[in-house]
TrEMBL record:
Domain of life according to the entry: Eukaryota
Protein name (record): Nudix hydrolase domain-containing protein
Entry-linked Pfam families: NUDIX
PANTHER family, sorted: 8-OXO-DGTP DIPHOSPHATES NUDT15, NUCLEOTIDE TRIPHOSPHATE DIPHOSPHATASE NUDT15
Domain annotation Nudix hydrolase: ranges: 7-173
Annotated InterPro entries: NUDIX_hydrolase-like_dom_sf, NUDIX_hydrolase_dom
Stored Gene3D superfamilies: Nucleoside Triphosphate Pyrophosphohydrolase
Amino acid sequence: MDMEEAKPVPRVGVVVFVLKGKSVLLGRRRSSIGASTFALPGGHLEFGLSLTHTQLYWLNQNIFGSLALIKYLSGAGESFEECGARELKEETGLEMGKAEYITVTNNLFLEQPKPAHYVTIFLRAVLADPDQLPQNLEPDKCDGWEWYEWDKDKLPQPLFWPLDQMVRSGFNPFP
Ligand SMILES: CC(C)CCOP(=O)(O)OP(=O)(O)O
Ligand SMILES: [Mg+2]
Ligand SMILES: [Mg+2]
Ligand SMILES: [Mg+2]
């Protein structure tokens, strides 16, 4: 394997501050990066549309004709909002309502099992249905989702360290 292949490359994550009253949704991670720390729902920005090939084929055959295919092939990639909504749905079953970009961080994770470098896009959003309850749809990656008041003395510990740095800096995700 040549050195080019071995070199890790930065990846893009999109995470969502789901706001409910004074609280945000957090889950204790089980996956490789930040295992056992409390983090926001979210995940990797994916190449191209957040449609599966099957969905795309169906759309192509039944509704948009070549429109969907052109968008996919033109590389009109997954938007930050599409990624946030997809990841939130995949991980918690929750439908994302109005969302907006609030900040970005550039983090190197050297002490993890594998070194990683993430540019993380932070969105804030409300739920499409404020009464919808979160489910833990990926128990292999998360211990479960709970609402926590965004108050440095009331948040669970330990927080995923980029989030911990935001709390310590007095970051306020609320409008
Ligand atoms: C580390 C983080 C900022 C980006 C990746 O998040 P994640 O490990 O939750 O990714 P997935 O939800 O896509 O598995
Ligand atoms: Mg995910
Ligand atoms: Mg993902
Ligand atoms: Mg995730």
